[in-house]
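User: Can you help me understand a structure? I only have the sequence.
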Amino acid sequence: MRTLALIAALVAGCGSGERIAECDQLLAFAAKASACKKVDRAQRQQIDQAASTIRDSLDKLDDVGLDQAPPGAVTTTRQSCAKQAEDLRKMYEKLAPECVR
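Assistant: Let's start by predicting it. Here is the structure, written out as tokens:
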């Protein structure tokens, strides 16, 4: 979950009315994993907290504008979200496959 917090730090303070689809996909996956009863309650709470931080940061994107982001920040954020979504999916496919169907 530490990596989810790093993603939140990347997206904080940069953005536009446009959303970063890869981060929205990560949030959708986090919601799915958080709703799965096969995942330990404490872990679901961690997922919820990290997702909330990311969601809040993405909402700040609407206030600032992607065009105001430092060079490469949006690309880095997009890549980080995509990688984390893939890593989480792989982890849950092994630990609780019914959570990712």
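Now, to help you interpret it: Residues 2-99 form one domain. The CA atoms of residues 14 and 70 lie 7 Å apart. Let me know which part you'd like to focus on.
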